[in-house]
Specification:
Two copies of one chain form a homodimer.
Chain A (H helix, E strand, L loop, with lengths): L1 E7 L2 E11 L2 E7 L14 E4 L1 E6 L16 H15 L1 H17 L2 E8 L5 H6 L3 E8 L6 H4 L9 E5 L7 H13 L4 E5 L3 H9 L3 H8 L14 H7 L7 E5 L5 H10 L2 E4 L1 H8 L5 H7 L3 E3 L12 H11 L5 H8 L1 H6 L17 E4 L6 H9 L7 E3 L1
Parallel strand pairs in A: 1-4, 5-6, 6-7, 7-8, 8-9, 9-10, 10-11, 11-12
Antiparallel strand pairs in A: 1-2, 2-3, 4-13, 13-14
């Protein structure tokens, strides 16, 4: 029990309780409690565990090792170099610290995107739920992926890196694999100036960069108006798709995204550092795009906490109601990762994954404002 | 707002509120309320509008005109005679009074089964939601039914009368029509001794009765162990089926029903009067059969109120928790009629159809006990 129970953004109970039996929520509400072990968490708020829908735990070890002030392409080059220098053993042990940081900050559900594949065991054995994405770049779907061996169980799925790094045929094939398995497919989309220029013209320094990495793009249908339009032409935009970033999405892109039902994960702090530019969040909210939040990796942000991400969004977009930001950080994230039946709200039938926030509030509007500005606050995670 | 808000059987809020905007619930919970017109209903309970999943409004005019103490077959004969004597005009105007009685008793969602077809317009123009079932007997599906003309819009569906009155081919064809239209199909099942004997042996007086009504049953596959087993053989048992009564369902019948996902509507007061026998409700609850409640018509019960039905069930089966009975009368009923997305609970997103009950309770167990024993209580309906 606690001073407030936020079942979800439109269901908030004063002096409420959440009854958890055998790991599952069986009752919520208020009024006298009889029987069972009652834990009084205090005057603050019990809320659903947060969802970090996009992170790269395998880059945890690169925290503070790559600077962003020389442009995005240089950052990518430095990142790849630092990743090589660090070595897999180091990256793996640091990734475990990333898991701890997620849990401590109240994140229990995550979308972990792994290029190297080194976080698969970690994710599976961690307290995290959600989706481990095996990320594919280049012109070929690895054979073990086609056979389904590269993705080991129901927690795991595929991601394509991005339109400017992964061949359209590969994107289509991966999407098809995910669809057949009933899983979410993810992709970085419309993130950088470099991606935009390359997708529009095929020119710019990105082509050279790809060639150097051995990726031949001569057969790609370059020349779309935007990355979103380019991807729409491949036919992969649907509600089983989680597109990340959308920094460069204009009015018509957002319309395309909204109509297709694509889920969008925003990583605003990462965008600010790497690109100095924000997506058009206000327009996406107005268009009804299902938005959720991610942090990206510690190579581009200072923490893996979603409370920090919520605070940053509210700071950058004060017109978006705090309860809407809260929904992005919980229910929307769980739905985007395909685990909305088990996580994202405190409704009976869902998993008993709760966070207690020691906030103070006199009414519901206050409460959501306090939660959304609680970045950095010490929280308790109840599993 | 009210002293208690029962969002659903596992979500109860003390001193709570339900916010309704443009007919839809947009928020529930507790804590200070700001803005909007606040109506304080009192110390009692706001609950979801009740669901009467099985009634025959066209027989409302036969209230107190047919006695049940000469056996079921005689009751059916008397009923048919009384129905003929009454005339359609009288039955129609009385049916309108039945609608009023439903609404006054807190029922806003109904499963109305009509053999004569005379309640279709009434149902469509009434404040009731739910399903109007056109009921078919005999050996032939009417041509207008096949064309879909006999069932006019999304509110309407088909019912077969019963295994011992409707040919198996007709049952199958109607079920197929309903499935194609995405609608619930309903049937009276395992209600009477007469049905049981006829389905088992083809003997007994029911055969004579059918012959007299011009229904030739020589090609029906009589000889099953039970009506449930007989129907299972036709392949129509699935979760889109609402079976009514199940008075004669033994352990293996209940297993069949539970495994197939069939919804079951109980009309205990009607069963008591017409058959002096109760279904095995305790076993059905234990088996996880999705149970809901109906009254049947005023030709066999004294009221169309579901609170009365709940009270009778609790009286007959005191071991069944009141919160479980409450779920039958609300959420389960809405789901059984295929309107669970709009009715049955007070969750945000659903229709603002509420009932206020002036009960008093000090805790949740008390509260459900008070609600379940509130039969006959004056309630307020909020639409």
């Amino acid at each position: 029990k606690a001073g407030w129970v936020v079942v979800k953004s439109d269901t908030v109970v004063r002096d409420g309780f959440v009854k958890v039996e055998a790991g599952m929520i069986t009752e919520v509400g208020s009024g006298p409690i009889t029987g069972g072990n009652v834990v009084d968490h205090g005057e603050g708020a019990l809320v659903p565990a947060f969802v970090n829908a996009h992170t790269h735990l395998e880059l945890t070890g690169l925290a503070n090792k790559v600077v962003a002030d020389k442009g995005f392409k240089q950052w990518v080059k430095d990142l790849l170099k630092a990743r090589e220098t660090a070595g897999y053993d180091f990256l793996q042990s640091e990734a475990a610290k990333g898991v701890a940081q997620l849990i401590e900050s109240g994140v229990v559900v995550a979308g972990e995107v792994s290029t190297l594949g080194i976080t698969a065991d970690l994710f599976a054995s961690s307290p995290l739920s959600g989706v481990w994405f095996r990320e594919i770049l280049g012109n070929r779907v690895p054979e073990d992926a086609v056979a389904g061996n590269g993705v080991r169980d129901s927690c795991c799925s595929f991601a394509a890196h991005a339109p400017h790094t992964t061949a359209p045929d590969v994107i289509k094939e991966l999407k098809k694999l995910c669809k057949a398995r009933g899983q979410v497919f993810s992709i970085h989309l419309a993130e950088s100036d470099e991606e935009l220029e390359f997708i529009r013209t095929g020119r710019g320094s990105w082509g050279d960069f790809l060639r150097k990495r051995g990726i031949d793009f001569s057969s790609w249908p370059i020349g779309a108006k935007s990355p979103v339009e380019y991807l729409a032409k491949t036919g992969v935009l649907d509600k089983g798709m989680l597109a990340v970033h959308l920094v460069h999405a204009d009015r018509s892109d957002i319309k395309l995204v909204a109509e297709s039902g694509v889920k969008v994960c925003l990583c605003l702090r990462s965008n600010a550092r790497l690109h100095g530019r924000m997506p058009d969040v206000v327009r996406m909210v107005a268009a009804g795009v299902p938005l959720c939040l991610g942090t990206d990796s510690l190579a581009s942000v200072d923490s893996l906490g979603i409370l920090d991400e919520m605070a940053f969004m509210s700071y950058k977009f004060p017109s978006i109601p705090a309860s809407v930001v809260f929904a992005m950080a919980t229910e929307n994230g769980a739905k985007a990762l395909g685990v909305g039946r088990r996580f994202g709200t405190l409704e009976p039938g869902k998993t008993g994954a709760l966070v207690y926030l020691p906030v103070r509030a006199s009414n519901r509007a206050d409460l959501f404002d306090s939660i959304v500005s609680a970045g950095g606050m010490q929280v308790s995670v109840i599993l």
